[in-house]
Specification:
mainly alpha
């Protein structure tokens, strides 16, 4: 749990330009993961040992075990080609698997959220504000695939750029041939 909390630092890294990524995208991913972890996998005891929780954590961990050494070795210009290949290919399986696990976990947790009235805010209160967490999760389950696809598509573009090999000497690019 504390590692997911510490992952908030990634948002600061993106915001300050230490890493070339969007702080908004990083924040949304962190928020989604924190919600799935703290409110569902940890917050609902019946889901703590559910296959979705276990697989979700395994997939998340696998991705980080690849990503962080890659970042560190890139900083010192000592990253082996196989790790770059792994970094830009492992997500093809890990990311969709993780998202499906998150969505299944939210879906499986909805009856508990509803029956226990978890994380909702009811009126009257001093803020004069109401919040139905179960409805929020239902909306998120509808939006998840669309939000995920945008991020996954961005990763596919990064993969294409990163894994594109240098041009072979003596070959011209298609653009150069047209000139």
């Amino acid at each position: 749990g504390w590692l997911q909390s510490a992952a908030f630092v990634e948002i600061l890294h993106a915001a300050t330009g230490i890493v070339p990524s969007s702080p908004v995208t990083n924040f949304l991913q962190w928020l989604g993961r924190a919600n799935a972890l703290f409110k569902f996998a940890v917050g609902i005891p019946e889901l703590q040992h559910h296959a979705c929780s276990v697989l979700m954590l395994l997939v998340w961990s696998s991705g980080e075990v690849i990503r962080y050494p890659w970042y560190g070795l890139q900083l010192i210009h000592a990253c082996p080609a196989w790790l770059t290949w792994l970094r830009y290919n492992a997500f093809l399986l890990l990311y969709p698997t993780g998202v499906v696990c998150e969505m299944l976990l939210l879906f499986k947790g909805l009856p508990y959220v509803r029956s226990r009235d978890l994380y909702s805010i009811h009126m009257p209160n001093s803020w004069n504000f109401a919040w139905d967490y179960a409805i929020f999760i239902q909306v998120m389950l509808v939006l998840y695939p669309y939000l995920w696809w945008g991020n996954f598509n961005s990763l596919l573009r990064q993969r294409s750029k990163k894994l594109r090999g240098p041009a072979v000497a003596g070959q011209e690019s298609a653009a150069a041939k047209q000139d």
